[in-house]
Structures are given as structure tokens and as C-alpha cells.
Design goal:
Elements lengths: L1 H28 L2 H4 L5 H13 L11 H18 L6 H6 L1 H26 L4 H14 L1 H11 L3 H27 L7 H11 L3 H9 L6 H16 L1 H19 L12 H14 L5 H24 L12 H27 L1
Length: 348
């Protein structure tokens, strides 16, 4: 019993340790200069975690590692479930069939393109390829976080994927407004909103882009956010299908007669359930806003824990493969996404 209490105490200490870093990340993200760049506390959290991992990590009591792991796994799953409070099915229905189709086409095409290029062309391992593809195709860092436990991937692989999201998502924040204001994009405000929401990595970046275009009306912002939220909710079926595929692959490669369980990521199923519950508007919006703030804090904790598990020495051998893979997906999102948006909006 004494041993059990000691373990609980050490786990709690590790969780509090991560929570302190997450608090610092949120404080930094609220600085106006940082906030204007659309840099989320999740990204700041992983940067703080990486810096600590490669400088002072040896100073952390080894007993706290249980709490750090708890933050990166159990708290992560709970935070993904709570993420459903950011979405309602009414929002998704508002954008129309064309917005839904752009989201679906861009998600599927980007995910398969990134996975294929990373694994087959640029010779990365399968986990890093899938994580990098999920970040670009769905919703940035949050998608990488959600995909990692399904793959059971190592922390440094998820960190590589997040770093690619940060790099190309930041480029998109400056590129998209420049393309639109220059007249290079022959798009109505609504079309531009669908294009931005269907192709830009992070939710915060999607919100920032329409706001960066002088004189762009609210219709573009609304379309961008709703299309992005449509992509976000698609992470649940994507993870479920991925879990089933991994179970099938494991069963196929295992010895005859051995049993392989079906790896359904239940947190993704619960995520859909929470989004459905949120669509009923039973809970007052003020309380939902508080839940979302708590969820942001929990996600930041998970991301910080991910960063602390990342040591640069583990990156050896990857070279520029992640950059090439993410760069190819970015070109598809910008150029292919424009063509897909124009075609879908014109057709449907």
C-alpha cells in the first residue's frame, strides 16, 4: 500500500510538472505579438518541451516519468474527446455540400499522397509518414496528437510531424492573403473561405488568414472556419478506419492461429458522441467556452509531454525526407486545393 501511494504521488508530481509548462505556454500564446501570428499554445508547449528535453531533462526525477507519460497518453485521449465541444453538426450543414466535398477530397488526397511519398519515395518509416500526412490533411498538431496513440508511435516521430505543420502552416498564413490580394486567385470571398478552410493546417491559422485580408467580408471567415471544423470532425472516422487497417495488417502478418485484437480508437468514437451532444445545445455556451479553454490546456499538456519525450539524437538518419514530404503535400494543398475548390464549387 505504501508503494502504491508513492507511485500515485510521483505520477501526480509528473502531471503537475507538465501542467506548469503548459501554463507558461498559454501565457506566452496570449501575448499579442504571438497571438497575431496564429501560433497556438499547443505549438509553444511542444517547443518548450523540446528545449527542456535537450537541455535539462537529466535534472527531472526519474520517478516523475510516469506522470509525464500519463499526460502524453491518458490526458491526451480525454482532451481529444472534449475537442468535440468545439463542433456542432449544424455548423457542418451550414456550409453546404460543396464545402463538405472540398474537405473530404482534400483530406483523403493529402493523406494518401503524404503517406505514399513519405514511405515509398522518400523512405521514411511508416509511422512518421502517416503522422506527417495526418497533420497536413486534417487539423495540424491536434491531428498528429490524435493519430499517435493509434499508431503507438514514438514521441520524436510525432514531433517531426508537428514541426512540419508549424513550418508550412506558418508559410500558408502569409502566402494565402498575398495570393488573394494580388488578384492571382479568381475567387469570391466564400470560395476563398472554403479554399482556406479546406487546405490550411491549423484551426488558428485558418482563422488568422481571412482576418489578414483587408476588406474581406465575414462570409469568407465563416466559410473558412466551418469547412475547417468539417475537416476536424473527419479525424474520428479516419482514426477508426486506420485502427481497423492496422489490426488487419497485424493479423495478416502474424503467425497462423495467433489472435490479434481489433484496434478501435474509442476516444475517436467518443469524440463524435460529444460533438453530437454539443449539437443539441443543452449546455449553455458560456460553459462550453470554459470546457474548450480547459481542453486547450489539456491538449497543451499533452503536447508539452510529447516535446519532453523528444531528444534530437533520435532524428539521425531521417535527413530531409520529412521536409520533402511535407513540402510536396503543401504544394498539393495550395495548387491542387485551388483547382479542387473551383471545380467543386462550380459543379455543386
Amino acid at each position: 500500500m505504501i508503494f502504491l501511494k508513492k507511485q500515485i504521488k510521483n505520477t501526480f508530481s509528473g502531471v503537475i510538472f507538465i501542467a506548469i509548462f503548459a501554463t507558461i505556454a498559454i501565457i506566452i500564446s496570449n501575448i499579442s505579438a504571438v497571438n497575431s501570428l496564429g501560433i497556438s499554445p499547443l505549438v509553444i508547449g511542444i517547443v518548450i518541451g523540446i528545449l527542456y528535453a535537450n537541455t535539462l531533462h537529466n535534472k527531472t526525477p526519474k520517478a516523475w516519468e510516469r506522470g509525464i507519460a500519463f499526460s502524453g497518453k491518458e490526458i491526451l485521449r480525454f482532451a481529444i474527446v472534449l475537442y468535440g465541444f468545439r463542433i456542432t453538426f449544424q455548423q457542418i450543414s451550414e456550409i453546404g455540400f460543396d464545402g463538405f466535398m472540398v474537405s473530404l477530397i482534400m483530406l483523403l488526397s493529402t493523406f494518401f499522397l503524404g503517406t505514399y511519398l513519405g514511405y515509398k519515395v522518400f523512405k521514411m518509416d511508416k509511422d512518421t509518414s502517416i503522422l506527417t500526412a495526418s497533420g497536413a490533411s486534417v487539423c495540424g498538431a491536434a491531428a498528429v496528437l490524435a493519430t499517435q496513440p493509434v499508431l503507438k508511435a514514438q514521441e520524436h516521430k510525432a514531433t517531426i510531424a508537428v514541426s512540419m505543420v508549424v513550418l508550412f502552416g506558418t508559410i500558408a498564413m502569409f502566402l494565402y492573403p498575398a495570393l488573394y490580394t494580388s488578384g492571382m486567385l479568381d475567387m469570391s470571398p466564400r470560395e476563398f473561405g472554403i479554399y482556406a478552410g479546406g487546405t490550411i493546417h491549423e484551426v488558428a491559422q485558418v482563422i488568422a488568414v481571412p482576418a489578414s485580408v483587408p476588406g474581406l467580408d465575414q462570409e469568407a471567415t465563416d466559410a473558412a472556419i466551418i469547412v475547417k471544423m468539417t475537416r476536424v470532425i473527419m479525424i474520428a472516422p479516419m482514426l477508426i478506419i486506420l485502427g481497423i487497417y492496422l489490426s488487419y495488417s497485424a493479423k495478416k502478418s502474424s503467425k497462423k492461429g495467433s489472435k490479434v485484437g481489433l484496434a478501435i480508437p474509442w476516444f475517436a468514437v467518443y469524440f463524435i458522441g460529444v460533438a453530437g451532444f454539443n449539437s443539441l445545445a443543452i449546455i449553455p455556451s458560456d460553459i462550453v467556452n470554459i470546457i474548450n479553454k480547459i481542453d486547450t490546456f489539456l491538449l497543451t499538456m499533452a503536447m508539452t509531454a510529447l516535446g519532453i519525450g523528444t531528444v534530437f539524437s533520435k532524428f539521425k538518419g531521417l535527413g530531409l525526407a520529412p521536409l520533402y514530404t511535407a513540402g510536396a503535400m503543401f504544394l498539393w494543398l495550395v495548387i491542387g486545393g485551388y483547382g479542387v475548390t473551383k471545380w467543386v464549387v462550380g459543379t455543386f
